[in-house]
Design a protein that fits this description.
heterodimer; A: 388 residues; alpha/beta; Rossmann fold; seven-stranded mixed β-sheet; six-stranded mixed β-sheet; 12 helices; 19% strand; B: 91 residues; alpha+beta; Alpha-Beta Plaits; two-stranded antiparallel ribbon
């Protein structure tokens, strides 16, 4: 294992190379650009024997990956915000056709107003797309999850594409220490893809066919059950990676939760900042903890309930808004996880829309605001720091 | 084909070639094609144009629609150079 300083995007490109991907199709968009820029160099220089398809749109990028995966190739793409929006039709098709692949979504705000910065409005656009969805906190995790993604996605018990949510700029453009895994370890962990079904002229099959209403519900039920059942494989593969590398990932990861009465809940890179605030508040004697929600789909209901046992006030950090709805999507789901159960009261903070800076001091402020907000009622939410 | 969700293959992949025959689309039809054998010169244009492959050649060399599959689109009637095919409302 080698420890190097790498930009988050370059770390992802290295992982794609080491995972020996066969087909890469992508259209450049900020802040995903560096990933595919690096990958095109890697392919052009012969370091990786793969097809790099410079498509004319994101819709085509994922279409190429769908075709490649259907033929039994290992496929990769990456995109951001508006690119994902253009790709959305195919996002649902990839998962519904149960085609393994990995996509890194470099989270970016959806337009308008035009913004290139980070929030989770794009992630929430594809919340119900049926992909396995994971949020990463740093470059190392983004690197690791490329291997984990292929291993899980290609498992015949799973066959569901794997989306890695990687905060744009905060993670894609920051240079961080990354431990590169030795190629022999990767090769053993991730053997070549063995498809269950593949398009082959000598053994014709039909993929993505028309289905009448009298069978469509059964297809969707099978897909839903498969996504739920993938949970077991995800946990097992993550544990195996933990044994190999010492980096163990869990569907939910807690800090200072054991005796916590208050807790923050966050997705992605904001967890790292929240952690600093929690440590500061602990020094002041406040019983505050943090829960990082890593696995977004399938949603880890049981682990979440277990981890938050004893927490009385949960401060959810949402990075997107449900306009005209009940607040942010994360708070919405966490509340429903505790519906009619003895769970924490939820305060929903919508934070860092379009990448507005959120410092540890902001988390301390949110902690101080929470009791007053709770008095207003559990359905309330605020856009933190909005200028009145 | 009426499968329980447990019997659905991943992605609803179909491993049996030609299985679209199992779906008899004839009951989608509002109008059926009727051939006037006096006018028909057996050219086979209807057979070539049928988007469903539902038209077959009879022993006498005329062309007829398999009504289990004909959706009644009327393309054969539109294309027939002799004007020998009429679309008749199903009752």
């Amino acid at each position: 294992m080698k420890r190097v300083a790498l930009e988050g995007s370059v770390a992802v490109a290295e992982a794609v190379k080491q995972a020996n991907v066969d087909v890469i199709a992508a259209y450049p968009i900020t802040p995903q650009t560096h990933i595919v820029e690096k990958l095109s160099e890697i392919v052009a220089s012969g370091e990786l024997d793969a097809e790099f398809v410079p498509v004319e749109s994101e819709h085509s990028a994922l279409s190429v990956c769908i075709g490649a995966s259907a033929c039994g190739a290992r496929a990769f793409t990456a995109t951001s915000g508006p690119g994902l929006a253009l790709m959305t039709e195919m996002v649902f098709i990839a998962s519904s056709m149960r085609l393994p692949m990995v996509m890194v979504l470099c989270n970016r705000t959806l337009s308008a107003p035009l913004s290139i910065w980070n929030d989770h409005s794009d992630a929430m656009l594809v919340r119900d797309s049926g992909w396995i969805q994971v949020f990463v906190n740093n470059a190392q995790e983004a690197y690791d999850h490329v291997f984990l993604g292929y291993r899980i996605s290609e498992d015949h018990k799973v066959l569901i594409p794997y989306m890695i949510h990687m905060d744009g700029f905060f993670l894609t453009h920051a240079i961080e220490p990354v431990e590169l895994v030795d190629q022999e370890v990767v090769d053993k962990f991730l053997p070549p893809y063995q498809p269950l079904y593949r398009l082959d002229p000598s053994n014709p099959i039909t993929m993505g066919a028309f289905v009448m209403p009298d069978q469509y519900a059964e297809v969707k039920k099978a897909q839903d059950e498969a996504l739920k059942a993938s949970y077991q494989v995800i946990v097992e593969v993550w544990e195996k990676w933990g044994e190999l590398t010492g980096r163990l990932y869990r569907p939910v990861e807690g800090f200072y939760l054991e005796d916590a009465e208050y807790a923050f809940l966050s997705l992605g890179s904001y967890g790292e900042v929240a952690q600093e605030a929690v440590e500061f508040l602990r020094e002041k004697g406040k019983k505050v903890g943090l829960l990082k929600l890593r696995l977004w789909r399938p949603f880890p209901f049981e682990e979440l309930r277990k981890a938050l046992k004893g927490v009385k006030t949960l401060m959810v950090i949402d990075r997107a808004i449900c306009p005209g709805g009940p607040g942010g999507q994360v708070a919405l789901e966490v509340r429903s996880a505790f519906y009619k159960m003895d769970g924490p009261r939820v305060v929903d903070f919508i934070v860092g829309i379009s990448g507005r800076d959120t410092t540890p001091e902001d988390y301390v402020k949110m902690f101080e605001m929470a009791p007053e907000l709770l008095e207003k009622g559990p359905e309330d939410y605020i856009i933190y720091g909005v200028k009145e | 084909m009426k499968l329980s969700w447990r019997e659905i293959k991943p992605g609803a992949v179909i491993t049996e070639p030609g299985s679209s025959r199992n779906l008899r689309t004839g009951d989608w039809r509002n109008e059926r094609p009727v051939v006037d054998k006096e006018k028909c010169n057996k050219c086979g244009m209807c057979y070539l144009f049928c988007p469903e492959g539902a038209i077959y050649e009879t022993e006498e060399g005329y062309f007829e629609s398999d009504l289990y599959y004909c959706k009644g689109c009327g393309l054969c009637a539109h294309e027939c150079p002799q004007g020998a095919i009429k679309m008749v409302l199903e009752v």
